[in-house]
Inverse folding.
C-alpha cells in the first residue's frame, strides 16, 4: 500500500528542519569553525562491518541505511532511526514501514544491495531488483557539531529511465554516540507526526482491497458452480493447481494467497448455507475480517446468502446480514 502523508505535514516538517539547521550552523560557526569537515575523511570503508558504532562516520551509516532500505530489512533500517522515530516506526503497519524504505531507493521491489567505492573512496550502493537497478552514490559529509549533511545521487542503471539522475541532501544527527537519520532533502524525518496519517491511509487501503477481494471470491465461487455444477467445499478448491490442469480440487479461479484465506490484512471465511451444495439453488456466505483490528482494518465485510454486501465496525468480529448494506 503506498500511502502519502498530506502536504501540510511536509511543510510543517520542513519548517522545523530549517529552524534546526539554522541553529546548528550558527552554533558551529561561533564555537569552532574547524568543526566542519568534508570529503572522504567522513566516509568509512564500504567493506567494513555495519556502521553506527562510536567510530563510524555519517557516510558509513548512510551507506548501511540505503542497503537496509534496498533489502526492505525493517529491523536493520530501524537501527538508524532516532529513538523517537524508532518507536513510531515499530507502531507503523508493515505496508507503511515498507513504503517509507522504498522512498530511500526509489524502487518498489526488495533488492539485493551491493556496496563498492567510487574512485574518490566514497561509498556507492547498488540496489538490484528483478526489474530495475539503481546506483546510489554518497558524497562527502558536511559535519556541523552534532549534524551531518551528505549529498546523495540516485542513478537509474536499467529500465526505461536508465541514465536518469535524482539528487538529494540527506541529514543525520548524532544521538547516543551514533549517527541517526534526521532529514531527507528539506523534510524532517518526523515519524510520530506522520504515523497516524500513514496508518489511517494503510488501513483504509486494506479495507478497499478486502472488499474487492470479497467480490472476486464471489465471482470465483459462481464460476466454479458453472464449471462443476456444485459449490466448492472450501476456498482452497478455488486456488491454482500445484501442477497439471485445473480441476474440481484446484480450479485456478483465485490466487494462492486468497484461496488460503488471507490477503491485505484480512482473513476470509466461506460457509455453505443450507443442506445442499449442488446446483443453482445452493447458497453460501462470505466474510472478510481484519486480522489485526485497528491496524490492518476496522470494518468487517459480509456477503449474505442472497448476494447482498454488508459492512460495519464489529470490533474485529465477523460481520453478519444485520450490518448495513453497501454497494
Amino acid at each position: 500500500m503506498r500511502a502519502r502523508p498530506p502536504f501540510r505535514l511536509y511543510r510543517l516538517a520542513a519548517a522545523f528542519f530549517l529552524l534546526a539547521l539554522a541553529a546548528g550552523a550558527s552554533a558551529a560557526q561561533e564555537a569552532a569553525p574547524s568543526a566542519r569537515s568534508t570529503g572522504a575523511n567522513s566516509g568509512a570503508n564500504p567493506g567494513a562491518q555495519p556502521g553506527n558504532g562510536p567510530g563510524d562516520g555519517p557516510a558509513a551509516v548512510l551507506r548501511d541505511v540505503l542497503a537496509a532500505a534496498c533489502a526492505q530489512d525493517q529491523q536493520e533500517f530501524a537501527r538508524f532511526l532516532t529513538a523517537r522515530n524508532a518507536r513510531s516506526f515499530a507502531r507503523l503497519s508493515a505496508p507503511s514501514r515498507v513504503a517509507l524504505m522504498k522512498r530511500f531507493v526509489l524502487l518498489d521491489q526488495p533488492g539485493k544491495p551491493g556496496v563498492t567505492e567510487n574512485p574518490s573512496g566514497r561509498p556507492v550502493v547498488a540496489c538490484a531488483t528483478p526489474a530495475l537497478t539503481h546506483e546510489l552514490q554518497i558524497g562527502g559529509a558536511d559535519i556541523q557539531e552534532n549534524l551531518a549533511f551528505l549529498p546523495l545521487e540516485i542513478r537509474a542503471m536499467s529500465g526505461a529511465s536508465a541514465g536518469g539522475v535524482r539528487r538529494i541532501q540527506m541529514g543525520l544527527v548524532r544521538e547516543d554516540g551514533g549517527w541517526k537519520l534526521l532529514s531527507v532533502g528539506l523534510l524532517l524525518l518526523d515519524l510520530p507526526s506522520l504515523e497516524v496519517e500513514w496508518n489511517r491511509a494503510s488501513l483504509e487501503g486494506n479495507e478497499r482491497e478486502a472488499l474487492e477481494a470479497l467480490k472476486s471470491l464471489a465471482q470465483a465461487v459462481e464460476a466454479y458452480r458453472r464449471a462443476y455444477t456444485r459449490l466448492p467445499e472450501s476456498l482452497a478448491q478455488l486456488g491454482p493447481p500445484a501442477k497439471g490442469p485445473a480441476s474440481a480440487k484446484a480450479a485456478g479461479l483465485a490466487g494462492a494467497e486468497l484461496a488460503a484465506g488471507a490477503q491485505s490484512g484480512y482473513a476470509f471465511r466461506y460457509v455453505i448455507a443450507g443442506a445442499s451444495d449442488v446446483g443453482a439453488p445452493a447458497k453460501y456466505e462470505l466474510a472478510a475480517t481484519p486480522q489485526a483490528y485497528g491496524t490492518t482494518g476496522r470494518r468487517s465485510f459480509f456477503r449474505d446468502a442472497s448476494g447482498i454486501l454488508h459492512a460495519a465496525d464489529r470490533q474485529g468480529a465477523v460481520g453478519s446480514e444485520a450490518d448495513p448494506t453497501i454497494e
Notes: The two ends are 23 Å apart (CA to CA). The chain has two domains: 7-189, 202-326. The longest strand covers residues 165-175.
